Amino acid sequence: MSTKEKAVEKERKAVLALLLQKTGLTYKDLVNAQVGMWMAGNIDLLSEQERQMFPNLTF
Q1: Angle at alpha carbon of residue 44, lines to 41 and 47, rounded to 5°
Q2: What pLDDT is stored for residue 26 in this prediction?
Q3: What is the pLDDT of residue 14?
Q4: Rg (the chain; Cα; Å)
Q5: What span, in angstroms and rounded, lies between the C-alpha atoms of 16 and 18?
Q6: DSSP the chain
Q7: Less Cβ around it within 10 Å: N or C end of the chain?
Q8: Is 17:23 a contact under the CB 8 Å cutoff?
Q9: CA dist 32 to 5, 10, 11, 43, Å?
């Protein structure tokens, strides 16, 4: 990794930490929200039989 790439990555991490602090979120909260959105966007890939395997979730 070049010096420039290292500097960019360091700044990205700093911005992420600052934004998480300002919004009152944790990294885990952010990841869980994104995973939920990804799942919702791909739920159509499940067959009806597969959906029935998860009775506590609404699709």
Answers
A1: 145
A2: 98
A3: 98
A4: 18
A5: 5
A6: --HHHHHHHHHHHHHHHHHHHHHT--HHHHHHHHHHHHHHHHGGGS-HHHHTT-TTS--
A7: N
A8: no
A9: 27, 23, 23, 16
